Amino acid sequence: MNFLPNIIFIVLLVTTSVVFGIRVKKIRRNILLGRDENRSDRKGERFEQMFKVAIGQSKMTRKPLSGALHVIVYVGFVIINIEVLEIVIDGVLGTHRIFADFLGSIYDLLIGSFEILALGVLLACVVFLARRLSKRIKRFDGIEMTAWPKSDANIILIVEIALMTAFLVMNAADEQLQSIHAEGYITAGFYPISGWLSSLMGMFEASTLIVIERSCWWFHIIGILGFLNYLPFSKHFHILLAFPNVFYAKLTPKGQFNNLESVRKEVELMMDPNVDPYATPPEADPNAALPAPFGAKDIQDLSWKSIMDSYTCTECGRCTEDCPANQTGKLLSPRKIMMDVRDRAEELGRLIDKSGKEATDNKSLLNDYITPEELWACTSCNACVDSCPVNNDPLAVIVDLRRYLVMEQSQAPNELNIMFGNVENNGAPWAFPAADRFNWASEED
Ligand code: HEM
Ligand code: SF4
Ligand code: SF4
Fold this sequence. Notes:
Blueprint: H1 4-31, H2 43-55, H3 64-93, H4 98-103, H5 105-134, H6 147-179, H7 194-200, H8 206-230, H9 238-247, H10 261-271, H11 304-312, H12 318-322, H13 324-327, H14 334-355, H15 365-369, H16 372-376, H17 383-387, H18 394-407, H19 414-426, H20 439-444
The structure holds protoporphyrin IX containing FE (HEM) and iron/sulfur cluster (2 copies).
Residues 54, 57, 60, 66, 70, 73-74, 77-78, 128, 153, 156-157, 160, 238-239, 242, 314, 316, 389-390 line the site of protoporphyrin IX containing FE.
């Protein structure tokens, strides 16, 4: 027996799995550069949220056409991957259709369903691609949608079309080989789609059919392993991250903002009579971690969840489409906020790989990527959070960066400074002294 194909296959499988593992480890490290935040509470509600939004695709179907097409691609891709398991086992052991022997007629049912799903995925991806190339959908455009994000979206769809085509052509050649009882091709499977193609293959000799079947087999599996390694560099990484991302998404009401620990401590020092103001401040302890800033200037100041959001973003533009600031021509695009966080996390990650954890490049997310003009255009309405199908929270990033501008740099728009002054002097946002507060009541008298 010739073991060369098995050896090549095993080397390929191990190498691509290791390279994928290394890249995923780096993304995990980049996510954990962020500030610690507990998102593991209320597990029951989290599982419910994940079942509804990620597995059940509840927000995707708000747009019926792209939602339905996506459900076909999503379900098809997940189920067809059972076939990949068989291909991997066949590749390692040098067998052919190993599941056929012990699954019997269930195998026919499985292959038949895979074929129908493969055709569905293929057609859905063709429609997705046509929609993108026709440039008629506004949300696929925007200042952040430069050449790479656009090519990325097209590459993914073209690869999926090619993979599904190879799968169907492979089955067609296999079925033809089965019908002429070629050596090594056991009679197994039901081919409702490739059966149509198979009749066209009747003109080929057995040797040509074997070349077609083997080429498609290798193309399919090399394509999948290559695709696996492309995922972490692409918006398509959402196919893995969407599930944990939705699981860890915020459970509190959308309008409820988190309190910053750094601010709470400061207020306690000022207001709580039980706090000893003469206790050694943590800054005086050389081993203590640096005090957290008020708000966020760079990746390390954001919650780890905001960085995970950025790696899960599918760049679909639903958030930007629904953003009132964007609709009224302001510079703000919540999708850009997400993409900027990811690009900056990647940049920092590369810097750490090159020069170690303490390295700095004198750049930051605030100003170098996201400008105050974008941040102050936000009305904190939460429309972007509501529309995101993977439950991303661009507003959390915006608010953290704004907090930094206000509390660390005293840089707020003039209107806000007037309001802050009123709160400080009058205990209310209005320009009236506290003593005049009940004047309205005396008028009513
Ligand atoms: C696990 C298998 C999955 C596969 C194979 C998959 C596949 C795809 C494909 C091919 C696209 C590109 C569509 C286009 O360019 O217009 C896409 C986009 C998208 N996916 Fe997934 N996906 C999966 C899981 C998920 C999950 C669990 C979610 C969460 C709800 C999700 C949310 C999205 C969103 C929001 C888009 C952008 C859609 C748009 O632009 O209208 N995907 N996905
Ligand atoms: S919260 Fe801000 S970024 Fe999000 S939709 Fe509203 S205005 Fe736009
Ligand atoms: S944040 Fe959500 S809605 Fe916005 S582009 Fe990314 S995936 Fe789409």
